[in-house]
Amino acid sequence: MVCFFGNQNIATEDHNKNGFSYVSEILKKEPDTIVELVAEFDDICTGCKKLKKDKNGSVWGKDMSCTSSQREDVVRDVQVSSAKVLKALGLNYGSKITWRELVKLLSERIPRLNDPMIGGEKNQSNYEAGFKILQTNNTSKRQ
Ligand code: SF4
């Protein structure tokens, strides 16, 4: 999400651009939006063209699946990366935190995207650009 603020072209496949745009508009208007960290399909997924109804459900949700949720290797890599991110942030699935606080924590505790599953080095400049925009936006909203 931070990278998307820095460069909207990162959602190149277009399948989840709607989801990123939908969430970023909410966060832009209200940086104190409370974010809940979930292990399932999230608010970005709700706009994704790959999300389909599926009576069998999937690891990330009842009655829904997507191409990613059906790939064991992707699911495993996402779970491993998410666990590392949560540990670094001192948060858990189910934690609730304002977007403003989450951005601050990310910038302090995960300054570099050295894991490809969370963007990787190729997105470092987008990540940093995102922080600049967000920190300006979040500060001006507070005044
Ligand atoms: S996890 Fe699935 S539904 Fe969510 S953004 Fe990725 S492909 Fe789309």
What does this 3D model show about the protein?
With 143 residues, the protein is mostly helical. It has one domain (2-142). It contains 5 helices and 4 strands. Helix 4 crosses helix 5 (124-142). The longest helix is centred in the last third of the chain and has 19 residues, at 124-142. The mean pLDDT is 92. Iron/sulfur cluster binds at residues 16, 41, 44-45, 48, 50-51, 66-69.
Task: Give a short synopsis of this structure.
With 143 residues, the protein is mostly helical.
Question: Helices and strands in order, then pairings?
Answer:
Layout: H1 2-6, H2 17-29, E1 34-36, E2 52-53, E3 64-65, H3 72-89, E4 96-98, H4 99-109, H5 124-142
Antiparallel strand pairs: 1-4, 2-3
Bound molecules: iron/sulfur cluster (SF4).
Iron/sulfur cluster (SF4) is lined by residues 16, 41, 44-45, 48, 50-51, 66-69.
Please tag this protein with its features.
about 140 residues, mainly alpha, two-stranded antiparallel sheet, about 45% helix, binds iron/sulfur cluster
| Count of discrete alpha- or pi-helical segments spanning 4 or more residues | 5
Structural class: mainly alpha
Largest sheet: 2 strands, antiparallel
Number of strands: 4
